[in-house]
Specification:
The protein is of the alpha+beta class. It has helices at residues 3-26, 32-88, 134-140, and strands at 94-99, 103-107, 113-118, 121-126, 148-153, 174-184, 188-193. The longest helix is centred in the N-terminal third of the chain and has 57 residues, at 32-88. Pfam families: FKBP_C.
Length: 200
């Protein structure tokens, strides 16, 4: 309750109590009609003070309800923003090995020309020469012929904010299932064995 509302309420109550005191002083000297008029005036003043009090309380309750709603809306908005960032934003390239050979001899390196299965047909490109998105360049490095990987590429290593309209919106996280079919060009022979096939 503000100071103005409090002052009005005290003023109305003060007038009503002053009239009651006046009535008690004048009652023996006054006639019945004057006493009735004074009582009616006091009742009107008391009714006005109750109405004023109800209006003040109603305003206060509405203000508090509005404040609670605003706080709830702000909290809900923040919660949505945080959950959206957690679910869709990948900050770094994530490489999942779906299938790795027990032994392998050919591994891809930077500037090698590679042939990769993507969407059921092979594509060829040179690693590290910006012929594909950065996430693909990084995701294919060190891959062995026959190996399968699942790449989860953040937008900064993909198409960034501009996207690739109409199919890829700006800021999209990209997921690719790839398989290295061949390495053409400079290669390294590696004789390593792993502990068997790994599934993601």
């Amino acid at each position: 309750m503000g100071w103005r509302e409090s002052w009005k309420l005290c003023s109305l109550r003060g007038r009503a109590s002053a009239r009651l005191r006046l009535l008690s002083l004048l009652k023996p000297r006054m006639g019945a009609i004057e006493a009735i008029e004074i009582v009616r005036g006091q009742q009107v003043a008391l009714a006005k003070s109750k109405v004023g009090l109800r209006a003040i309380v109603a305003r206060r309750e509405k203000w508090e309800m509005d404040r609670v709603l605003i706080v709830a809306l702000v909290f809900a908005t923040l919660l949505l923003v945080v959950s959206a960032k957690k679910s869709s934003d990948v900050m770094d390239l994530q490489i999942g090995v779906k299938y790795k050979l027990e032994t392998y001899s050919i591994q891809s390196h930077k500037v090698d020309r590679v042939k990769v299965h993507y969407r059921g047909y092979p594509i060829e490109f040179e690693l590290g020469n910006f012929q594909v998105i950065k996430g693909w360049d990084q995701g294919q490095l060190g891959m062995c012929v026959g190996e399968k990987r699942k790449l989860k590429i953040p937008s900064k290593l993909g198409y960034a904010a501009q996207g690739s309209p109409p199919k890829i919106p700006g800021g999209a996280t990209l997921i690719f299932d790839t398989e290295l079919v061949a390495v053409i060009g400079k290669t390294s022979s590696i004789n390593q064995s792993t502990e068997g096939n790994e599934e993601l």
